[in-house]
Amino acid sequence: MLEQLDDITLVKLFKENKQREQVFTAIVKRYQERMYWQIRRLVVSHDDADDVMQNVFIKAWNALENFREDAKLFTWLYRIATNESLTFLDQAKRRASVSYDDVSDTLENKLHSEKDFDEKKAVWKLQLAIQQLPEKQRVVFTLRYFEEMPYEEMSEILETSVGALKASYHHAVKKIEDYILNR
Amino acid sequence: MKDFNNIILELTHISQTVADIPNNNPFVVPDAYFSSFQTKLLSRIEHENTRFQPLSPLLESLKKENPFVVPENYISSFKVSIPQKEGLLVSFFSIKNMLKYAAAAAIVGIIATFAVLSNKTEEKTALAFTADRSAISEDAFALYLSESELVENEQNLNIEIDQSESFLVNLNPKLISEILTEIPENDISTYMSLLEFEDLNSMN
Question: Is the pTM of this model over 0.90?
Answer without folding.
Answer: no
